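User: I've been going back and forth on whether these two constructs are worth ordering. Before I decide, could you fold them both?

Assistant: Sure. I'll take them in the order you sent them. The first construct and its structure tokens:
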Amino acid sequence: MSQTRTVTELAEHLGGTVQGNGATMITELGALETAGPDALTFLANPRYASKVAETSAGAVLMAPGGERYGRTAIEVANPYLAFAKLLTLFYTKPHEPLGILPGAIVSNSATIGEGASIYPGACIGRNVVIGARTTVYSGAVLYDNVVIGAECTIHANAVVRERCQVGNRCIIQPGAVIGSDGFGYAPDGNSYYPIPQIGIVVLEDDVEIGANSCVDRAAIETTRIRRGTKLDNLVQIAHNCQIGEDCMIVSQVGISGSTKIGNHVTLAGQVGVAGHLTIGDNVLVGGQSGVAGSLPANAAYSGSPTMPHKEWLKSAMVMPRLPELKKSVSALEKRITELEMALKQNRQES
């Protein structure tokens, strides 16, 4: 539920500075275009600074030194982050400890932490350990010997398979599968023999897994997603992958088996990564790129196959002109052929 705060109180919460009337009462948050006089909005992109003059919002979150157009403002270094924190303050419900609700299926050998909430229809297997203040929603299934840390949220119809481990404060969105079998088959004549996938998945603290994403268990050891990494919806992480800390992996990315991703890597939408590669720290890969080889750290790449982003931009500018360039090259080839024939004829005549 929303709650009323003064601009000064919100500034103190954020560590920001008030410019204007700090006593203005704020009851909700809103967009620049639609916020009313009781709402606080934010300006994150300077390109839209002129909209501050037009907004009806009671106050604006903005970077220091920006034009306020007479509006009350809270100045913070990162308005976008500050607005996210206020969304949490105003609208995120505190965890409600409900215990094991009627209709939940919980093994007698499971250990349920203090303040946890297990909703009707959730299925908790043998020897499962669930940490304090964790919530497991209806339809979620935790196979035998799973370990879930404290203050996690396992949404409806998510699955965590046997022996996999989830750290603290993790969020697994609806329909996600943690620990599905890796895609491993041994050729057997004209058919394929399925290789048992006996490893596990480990999600470290503060990892988030998007809806209908899949993280495959390792063939033998561990598929690991390190602290703070966020997966969007519809992401595929294959067996034996190692994903570093604080990575952002956007929707429809597919990472093939045994690939190692460094820290603070961003893979934009629909990036495909081949197997057994290494991607260094602080790499950004543009959308729909195909990563066929390892990528050094601290650089941006795009294209399929990937190349440095600046080179790809130059190539992309040429692409629309290829038909025209083809005609030009064909015309040049024709002229060269004609000149060669004329030169040959002149030599014969002389």
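The second construct, handled the same way:
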Amino acid sequence: MTRQVDTIISARYIVPVIPAGPLENHALVIHQGRILDLLPDAEAREKYATSNWQQRPHHTLIPGLVNAHTHLAMTLFRGIADDLPLEEWLREHIWPAEQEWVGPDFVRDGTELALAEMIRGGTTCASDMYFFPEVTAGTAASMGMRMVVGMPIIELETAWAKSAEECFAKGLEVHDAYRGHPLISTAFAPHAPYTVSDESLSRISKLANELELPVHMHLHETAREVDEAVQSTGERPVARLHRLGLMSRQLVAVHMTCLDDADLTMASEGNISVVHCPESNMKLASGTCQASALRDRGINLCLGTDGAASNNDLSMLGEMRSAALLGKLTSGDAAAFPAAQILEMATLNGARALGMEDQIGSLEPGKWADICCVDMHALHLQPLYDPISQLVYCAEDSDVSDVWIGGSQLLENRRLLNLNEKSLFEKTARWAERLSGFGING
């Protein structure tokens, strides 16, 4: 007797990450939003029945990609003040533009644009850090996107909050509003060591432990940041966070360039996670994440795009390729960061950093059915000897055909199902007109 289920997806290849795969001519069985089974296609036909059996004969199914560091609303700043160093880009262009324009409407429209881009590129979960997180959360929930929404903490006055104290109050309201939500969770998001006080960081450490939340933070983004910290305090940023109790498994440290042996030891002993953002770091010449050294110390290493304002896209497939190639170049070892390891960094390791490895990041029974389907029937993906290698080194966002989050299909045959693209184009064009005076291309 066959069991009735919601959805079955048959594909030429399935790469579940756990086990490593690839599995050929298998089927993924989905029921009530979760993965029920993964088994050979012929066996699935004997055990299960469904009115929604989707055949993907030239495709590869992988876990939905996890973008572990983003600034989604900043997608509306894409192309502003390109080809400038980080400090000049931020202080002379981005921060003035934020002061002028950032508000709930900006965040809503920028987040919609970013989510559309990410879904079309196979990303099913993102960890965001930006102002008006309540707007980001509402927008993501309405589109069916899985999101870890950062509660930004910064000592400077912003359009969202006048002080760090107000940041805490407003952020915790967002946390309470989405407690138990199936798609939206929260994290503390102190901006960086140079914009957050010891008092605020100590408070974050205490609250993160009490609420069991991640702490998502820029750390050691540039050599200048590290040098200025040492000059002003006599202490490296990693050492400072260690002193304040933040170098723990809850810390999701973004960038992590310019590390010495003591930094690596504290990161390893604290069991932190590190988000490697290779394309943003290269574009801003911010420095290189010491990915090989971090990995060799057993530190959980995952991937993020950073914001589209500094990348300039939100493509996790592109980030995988860049991370693989840069890892080989910087280590001087062509065997470093093989394709399967890079895919794990973009899926399960990202989920682990966000405290969600028991829910997403691999195609295992019991986990949410967050799935990316890549059409491998394209000239630039031929001949197809190894689907994992082709995904990392050859695939493009335009090859992503279908996306499911929690068993709900958001992308079907490259068409977004939950968004009016014409309206999104129109809203984005209006923002581009308003922002055009803020230093396009410097």
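Notes on the second construct follow. The longest helix spans residues 104-120. The two ends are 67 Å apart (CA to CA).
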